[in-house]
Design goal:
Blueprint: H1 2-17, E1 22-24, E2 36-41, E3 45-48, E4 53-65, H2 72-85, E5 88-91, E6 94-106, E7 109-121
Parallel strand pairs: 1-2
Antiparallel strand pairs: 2-4, 3-4, 4-7, 5-6, 6-7
């Protein structure tokens, strides 16, 4: 499910910013093309709710690396656009709301956090049952 949420975030960012911004979902050691976004899932949690429902809390960090160094104004403008574009994303055809959004510029990189919390329903597959067998037993009487 986390990968599907990452896909939804990537699609929302692409729709808002277009093809001029690279979007990375894996770590990049070298060759980072700026301006770009990096999407990381920080610490997903799962808690049991009622019945077979589980509440999944997924916290994401979206980092924005601006085109120009020392460009806080560019980071602030991107923050405003992320607030709007990540309010609702599409995951498996359903809308999921982003909550707990906030951004902070550290070392000329925007660190934007957002949670995508959703309920999942665990479906258990029925195991094949054994066929019925008829057992006949009798006691032999001694004479």
């Amino acid at each position: 499910m986390i990968n599907k949420i990452i896909d939804g975030i990537s699609e929302a960012i692409y729709q808002e910013f277009g093809a001029g911004y690279a979007i990375y979902t894996e770590s990049v050691e070298q060759g980072l093309k700026e301006p770009c976004f990096s999407i990381l899932c920080l610490n997903p949690t799962s808690g049991r709710f009622l019945g077979k429902r589980y509440l999944r809390t997924n916290q994401f960090m979206i980092q924005y690396f601006p085109f120009a160094k020392d460009s806080r104004s560019e980071c602030h403008a991107v923050t405003e656009r992320l607030f709007c574009s990540l309010e609702l994303i599409t995951v498996d055809g359903d809308l999921v709301r982003g909550t707990g959004m906030g951004g902070e510029v550290v070392d000329d990189v925007l660190n934007f956090q957002v949670n995508f919390d959703l309920f999942v329903y665990k479906v258990r597959t029925e195991e094949a049952t054994m066929e019925t067998h008829k057992i006949i037993t009798s006691v032999r009487e001694e004479e």
